[in-house]
Amino acid sequence: MAEEYKYEFFNVTFPAEYVAHVEINRPEKLNAFKEIMWLNLSKIFRRLSHDPNVRAVVLTGAGPRAFTAGLDVQAASEGSTLGPAAAGTPRDVARSAVGIRRHVLEFQDCITDVEKCEKPVIAVLHGVAFGLALDMSLACDIRLSTRDARISIKEVDIGIAADIGTLSRLPHAVGNASWVKEVCLTARIFGAEEAQQVGLVSGVYKDKEEAVARGLDIAKLIATKSPVATMGTKEILNYSRDRTVSDGLQYTAIWNSSMIQTQDVKDAMLSGLQKTKPKFAKL
């Protein structure tokens, strides 16, 4: 199945039944992103979302040095959207703004495709995890980290407000507004222990090997559950995050009015009575 997932700057493997491992693969540049990479990330997660052979995904970076150092600033500065205008053709401010807005929205949508993936996604932060590393990992469902992770919301250091998702998602992921503003406004580097203390990550492990192994173990466990149930759980949690409790309850009732009729409920109950391991049909 891996042969079907050939995308530049990414390795996609299937280390266990119903589990996909997506690895950002540009280690010589600390896995820094240029445009083709976020476009390919979108394609990969859109495909995984509807792949009946996948029920959980682990996201990591290649090599020991970085999950990702964020945006490749040099590549971005040379691009057609953010690069210098052609000689003798001064830019109209409004037209430049329209082009930049379209570019940012496309970039945001590519990262949001990770969040929209129907399958639970587990990010493993390791080494350098700057800027875009937070945008991507906050779009994931579960975040783990290595002890050596160096994490930073770096954008103010290059003169911009982070615009690909961190400023919108981080306040929902961490219940400390003061801490959120501090790290976003200072761009200071913080470690895994602090990230766990505020709830940004749910587990810290001694090295990348151990953290990835833990991520895969979680993915394997999720993959044994009903794909109808895990998809619904993720959908309802994400929906409820941005709405009132009342809205979330109403949506849950509507969702389960159809999804609770799945054969998976009967299979799960029967396996519990018979002390057997249930096998669920592909979604």
Q: Topology, please?
A:
Layout: E1 10-16, E2 19-24, H1 35-50, E3 56-61, E4 66-68, H2 73-77, H3 93-116, E5 121-125, E6 128-130, H4 132-138, E7 142-146, E8 150-152, H5 166-173, H6 177-186, E9 190-191, H7 192-197, E10 203-205, H8 208-223, H9 227-241, H10 245-259, H11 263-274
Parallel strand pairs: 2-3, 3-5, 4-6, 5-7, 6-8, 7-10
Antiparallel strand pairs: 1-2, 8-9
Helix pairs in contact: 1-3, 4-5, 9-10
Family: Belongs to the enoyl-CoA hydratase/isomerase family.
Organism: Aaosphaeria arxii CBS 175.79
Pathway: Mycotoxin biosynthesis; Lipid metabolism; fatty acid beta-oxidation
Give a short overview.
The protein is built from 11 helices and 10 strands. By secondary structure, the chain is α/β, with parallel strands linked by helices.
Descriptive account of the structure:
InterPro entries: ClpP/crotonase-like_dom_sf, Ech1-like, Enoyl-CoA_hydra/iso, Enoyl-CoA_hydra_C. It holds the Pfam family ECH_1. Keywords: Acetylation, Fatty acid metabolism, Isomerase, Lipid metabolism, Peroxisome, Virulence. This protein folds into two domains: about 1-225, 2-enoyl-CoA Hydratase, Chain A, domain 1 (Alpha-Beta Complex), CATH 3.90.226; about 225-275, Lyase 2-enoyl-coa Hydratase, Chain  A, domain 2, CATH 1.10.12.10. Helices cover about 45% and strands about 15% of the residues. It is built from eleven helices and ten strands. It has a six-stranded mixed sheet with strand order 1-2-3-5-7-10, sandwiched between helices. Helix 1 packs parallel to helix 3, helix 4 packs across helix 5 (about 165-175) and helix 9 (about 225-240) runs antiparallel to helix 10 (about 245-260). It is globular and about 70 Å long. The model has no long low-confidence stretch (mean pLDDT about 95).
